[in-house]
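SAMPLE LOG
Freezer: B-3
Tube label: C17
Construct: single chain, 430 aa
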Amino acid sequence: MVASTRPRKSGGAAKERFRSKGGFIPAVTCLELRGDGSVNGSAPALQTGSFSQISDYVIPNYRERSKAGEVFINGLHIRRQEFTDGGGQGQVITNAADPSVFYDLTGPGHLAWLRVVYGTLAPIALLDEFDVAIMDELVGTAVESSRGRSDPNLWETLAEVDKTVNMLRKPLAAFDKFNKKHLARSIATSASNAWLQYRYGITPLIKDVQGIMKGLQKKVGKQRKTSRASENMFKTETQVDQYRTNFNFDIRIQKTDSLVVRGMSIDEMVIGEAFNIGFSAKNLLTLPWELVPYSFVVDWFANVGDFLGSMVPLLNVNQLGSCITRERVTTTVFTIENNFLSGGYIPGWTLTRPVYGSYICKDYRKDRGRLPSPKLSFRNDFGFDKPKRAADALALALQPLDRIFGGKKTSPPRERFFRAKIDRNGKFQD
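STRUCTURE (predicted):
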C-alpha cells in the first residue's frame, strides 16, 4: 500500500523492496560422557539464532517531493524471530559407591532435554485474531472521530458553566457533609466526591485554560492537522508441564503477548482563532452525547462517543493520508527446574548436578496498512486494571450511598467533573 497526495509527473511509481538478514546457528550436539571420558550417548540441542524480514516501498525523489508538499504513507511489514539460550547445563549422575563413575551431559544439556520433550519450540500467542480486529476497529473509529475537532472543547465548558462556577465557589464542598450516624459511609462518599471533583472538574478546567492559552498562540489559515489514536493490550500466562520417568523435572512456561495499535490521519483544513481556542463545529454537534448522564461510563465498555463523532460529516477538510500501525511482541520462556530422580531409577546412583536452564522464543511483528472504516464495537479491555480507572469506578459506585445516607437527593451526574476527557487507560487527553 502506498498513498500520496499532490502527485507529480516526474515522481515515478513507488517500488516495493524486500530485505532479510540473520540465520540460525547449527544445533549443538550434547555428549553424555562417562567418568573415563568415553562417550555414552549424544543428543542434539535446540537451534539458536535470529532471522528478520522487511518489506517496504522506495519512493523516487522522496526528499524533493516531500519538500514540495507531497505526503507519503507507505505499506510496511517487519518480522523478526529470535531463539536464545537463556543459560543452563545438563545433569551429572554419580555412582554413590564409586564417585569416579558418573555420567555427565555436556554442553547446553537443558536445550537437548527440551528438544526431547517438545521437538521444536516457538512463541505461544495469547491474543487471537478477534482481539486484533477489535483493536483495529476502535482505533480506526477514534481517529475518524478526532478529525476536524479542536483540541480544547469550550462548547462543553459553556454548557456546564453553572456547575463549574458552583465548583469554584465551594472547592471543598465534597468534604462538607458528614453523617455522624453513618460516619464510615460518610467518609467514603465524601472522599469519592472529592476524587471525582478533582478528576473530572478541576483537572479538565486546568486543561481548558492551558488549551486556550496554547490556542491563542497558534497560527490561523490553511494548514495541516494530524489526528491520532491508539489502543494497547497485554496478556501474560504461566503454566507448568511435568516430565515424569525415572528422571524427572518440571518445565515452567512463561508467556507474554503485547499489541499496540496506532492510527493517524493527516488533514488539510482552514483553521481560525475560534477553532484554536476550542469552538469547532464537530465538538458542537457531538455535545449532546457528552451531556448525557454517565455517557463516559458507557464509553468505558463501547466506543459509542467515538462512533457518533466519526459519523459527523466534515466540511472543507481534505484528507491527505491515513494509516494504521500494529506492533506486536510475543515472547515465551521455557525453563527446566526441580530436577530429581525417582525411586525407579537404578539403585546406587545419585543426582550430583541437576539439569536446569531456559530457552527464550521471541516473535516481533510490525505492520502498516489502511485505516479501517468506523464501526460501533465493544471493548475487549475495560481498563479496570489501571489504578485511576479502578479509583473512578469505585468512586462512582459509592455515589448511591451519598444519596441514601446524605439526606439529599441529587440528580444523575451530568456535570463536567463526572465526564473528563480521558482515554481508556485513565489518562487525560490533551
